[in-house]
Amino acid sequence: MKLKVKKILFAFTVIVGVSTFVQCKNDTSKGEATTANETPVSGKTSILVEESIYPIVEDVVSLFEYEYDRVSIELIKKSENEILDLIYKDSLRLAVLPRILDSLEVSDFKGKVVPKMTYFANDAIVFISSKNNKDSIIDYELLVSELQSGSINKDKLLIFDNVNSSISKHFRELANVKDLSSSQVYYLSDTQQVIEYVNKNPNAIGVIGLNWLVQPSENIRVDLDNIKVLGVKNPKDNKYYKPSQKNIGEGNYPLSRKLYLLDFQGKSGLGMGFASYIAGYKGQRIVLKSGLAPFIVHPREVIVRKNIE
């Protein structure tokens, strides 16, 4: 991921014209930054990140710290349930999740703080399999029906990243069941393990977040060479779509999901500054380059000049 971030840094500098003073910052000023009083563009904080969408947040934080050298952000990778538990316990006050809080969850903070939820990108839940698997498409509504009835094809094994992840929770909610049978699904600990398992088992179908495919870490690149992404049936037109930026942005891919930064700080701190950055022009350019779909594509300003004879 470090090599990828370096490449993004170079491209990003060309696109948005990072000012020359950024290039002149030294290690001394960076050291002072971590102990500075917290403001929207200075100080030190931690952000909880749902594991399935970690890569995009890591990239944006790297560039945010690069541009504002008095900022130091620690990213903590957790499952959705673990993140909510830590937030409710007031252990940490910033989180990134692939959903907003529902009205009941928001009511838990009544009288304490009003959660600020900033929508910044569109990700997707994707199905992956080994290239040796004969299937290249999947009907997720039929799959949900099979999960409900417990009659899933015995030759098909669904592999989830984590029993407490947002992805496995999503399918339990779709199937309206509390638990999925161990004969139907298999839970691992993270996305990397799912990719490795699917690579070695032709009949397995992994269910993961798109973010790890468009921004893979170095240690899974080899496994991805033997992985294919399945097309998913859209019940609105009965056509099958791959999770491309275009299909997600236009709403054709049926399992897209919105990403949010949740801020429980209740003050003008780094949470507010990072939210403005990730949802602003620069953050949205990073999202666009990452392979995910930004929530808004900022228009370019075009200056037309007449030739002077």
Automatic annotation (TrEMBL):
Tell me the first and last residues of the signal peptide. none
Stretches assigned to the PBP domain: 35-279
Signal among keywords: yes
Pfam families xref list? PBP_like_2 (PF12849)
Report keywords, A-Z.
Signal
* Source superkingdom: Bacteria
Protein's name according to its UniProt entry: Phosphate ABC transporter substrate-binding protein, PhoT family
- Highest lineage ranks of the organism? Bacteria, Pseudomonadati, Bacteroidota, Flavobacteriia, Flavobacteriales
